[in-house]
Design a protein that fits this description.
40% of the residues lie in helices and 17% in strands. It binds uridine-5'-diphosphate.
């Protein structure tokens, strides 16, 4: 019998890619999303790629009764992958209570309902943001690295949520969890057929690097500003561990199989990245090389609060989950560009 997985935030960027991988791995998928930052048409993309349309419920997870009704309607749910959250760092500084309510209350509701409805496993989307700027001798950063005080309410919700899950499991709750700490997810599902594409759809002016690069290449933005070139890195620009969203999605499938089907610790933590760092400048140059499209860019001042350099030691996930992110960066950047071209062809932007 196919196992049923609830994917919260399943029409979002990472959620949609993970839903595809779950379906292709043989799971039943139920998506819950309040569509606050994604579009219902994403379900068409998932269906075109996989041949299966996942069940969908437009529910706001802050609403306890509505969330409970999802478990009543789908009594076979065995595991949850919890993506649904607000994720804009700057906005979280402006609207802290909204961030705490969205990101913390949703998790509390799910945790409370899990034992009642016999849901065994929770995969939680956390972030390398919990490590702050690691000391240089701690790079690449492992799961054991000390956490640092969050610099935004968004980052703080990741730290708080990790702690809530740990406390709940320590209290003896009959659930298990795997916490995945993502590095920088980028790219889009690639397909020979443009209708079978899903990707990232930022609202308004993008904050993240890759959508800014693809929009500049498309002429939607005049110029990319590289924030700072006086960092202590080889070319002076910041370094991140950019991971292909499809590779990231596959990590969730491996984690779900482990949490549900194997006799493991009740809570485990994994870094999910490539294990390599690339500078902002390298990203722009690799993009131009892969796509043969020029990107207008200039150096500008540093962005407040930016981490200088971080990349992950992902050997724990490689060995224990049997998973590795190995898609070449140029292919990943090309997939982001194909997605941008589809958005243009569809008249979205
Ligand atoms: N970045 C940039 N220009 C932009 C957006 C981002 O130079 O318009 C840089 C940013 O300073 C950081 C890297 O790209 O060094 C990744 O930024 P992003 O916001 O995508 O991820 P995060 O900072 O959360 O790792």
């Amino acid at each position: 019998m196919k196992q049923t997985i609830l994917v919260t935030g399943g029409t979002g960027f990472i959620g949609s890619h993970t839903s595809v991988e779950l379906i292709e791995a043989g799971y039943n998928v139920v998506i819950v999303d309040n569509l606050s930052n994604s579009k219902i048409e994403v379900l068409d993309g998932i269906e075109k790629i996989t041949g299966t349309r996942p069940a969908f419920e437009q529910v706001d997870l802050r609403d306890f009764e509505a969330t409970k009704n999802v478990f009543l309607k789908y009594p076979d749910i065995e595991g949850i992958i919890h993506f649904a959250a607000s994720k804009a760092v700057g906005e979280s500084v402006q609207e802290p209570l909204m961030y705490y309510r969205n990101n913390v209350v949703s998790l509390l509701n799910l945790l409370e309902l899990m034992p009642q409805y016999n849901v065994k496993g929770l995969i939680f989307s956390s972030s390398c943001t919990v490590y702050g700027q690691p000391n240089p001798e701690n790079l690449p950063v492992t799961e054991e690295a000390p956490h640092q005080k969050a610099t935004s309410p968004y980052g703080n919700t990741k730290e708080i949520n990790e702690q809530i899950i740990l406390d709940y499991i320590h209290s003896g709750a009959n659930i298990k969890s795997i916490v995945l700490r993502y590095f920088n997810p980028i790219g889009a599902h690639s397909s020979a057929h443009p209708s079978a594409l899903i990707g990232e759809l930022p609202n308004g002016v993008p904050n993240n690097l890759i959508p800014y690069v693809t929009q500049t290449a498309m002429g939607i933005r005049k110029e990319l500003t590289i924030f700072g070139n006086d960092y202590n890195t080889p070319d002076g620009t910041c370094i991140r561990d950019y991971i292909y969203v499809v590779d990231l999605a596959k990590a969730h499938v491996a984690a779900m199989a482990r949490v549900l089907d194997q006799d493991t610790d009740k809570i485990e933590y994994f870094n999910i990245g490539t294990g390599h760092g690339n500078s902002t400048l390298e990203i722009v140059e690799t993009f131009e090389h892969a796509t043969k499209v020029k990107v207008n860019w200039k150096y500008g001042p540093r962005r407040e609060g930016d981490i200088e350099k971080i990349w992950g030691d992902c050997s724990k996930a490689n060995s224990i989950l049997g998973w590795k992110a190995d898609t070449p960066l140029s292919d990943v950047l090309l997939s982001a560009w194909k997605w941008q071209e589809k958005l243009r062809a569809d008249g979205v932007m």
